[in-house]
């Protein structure tokens, strides 16, 4: 099987399935990432000049989420059952926590929901996920490595890419739930206030992080689908310091 025909999996945070944020975000992106069904986008006045299908194509492909362990192919000898078991074990070691309210921001050329202030628990959860799922990850294909290396990474991000298969991990991690793909400046400036107004009811209060999710795609062209939600049941919160020690001890 060619690498492009192999499935990929990712460990993500996603809002609760019965939450208003989850429903709104999926409609905004135009796809239910659990069932795969197409969804009608909310009507927003003043955006008739924007190709919203095009603007949301990339996040629609990946499904609404925040990355903890970025998409990867399974290592040789590792099964999907192994991954499900690892996810259950991971969740059993992590405690639920409360994250700060969300804020809608421009991150480079795209728009995303981010945290309004730093959150050590979220940073620790992501760092622990990067480390704990690493034994299940196949090495990056050379073409994927070279593509990433051409994207203007810093020396530190390149080192993280080579070690963990993704450059935005550990101290480079920034929690975000993407709402658009890359936008021209004029489009971004037009969309940002409209999206801020649309999502503002879901940015007013802290939110609970009490599950992690497994997403997967059957091949590189297929959209990611939500495959599993697992509740965090540990008694100890993610520890950023421990995660950094694990990352540095290499």
Provide structural commentary.
- The protein is of the alpha+beta class and 250 residues long.
- The chain has one domain: Alpha-Beta Complex (Cyclic Phosphodiesterase, Chain: A).
- The chain contains nine helices and nine strands.
- It has a four-stranded antiparallel β-sheet.
- Strand 4 and strand 5 (110-115) form a beta hairpin.
Number of strands: 9
- The end-to-end span amounts to 32 Å
What is the level 1 CATH name?
Answer: Alpha Beta
Whole-number count of domains: 1
Q: Would you identify the regions where 5 or more consecutive residues have pLDDT less than 50?
A: 241-250
Look at the structure and give the mean pLDDT: 93
Strand content: 15-25%
Query: What is the number of helical segments per DSSP (H or I, 4+ residues)?
Result: 9
Instruction: Give the proportion of residues in helices.
Output: 25-40%
CATH fold call = Cyclic Phosphodiesterase, Chain: A
Q: What is the level-2 CATH architecture name?
A: Alpha-Beta Complex
CATH superfamily membership? Cyclic phosphodiesterase
Q: In terms of quaternary structure, what is this?
A: single chain
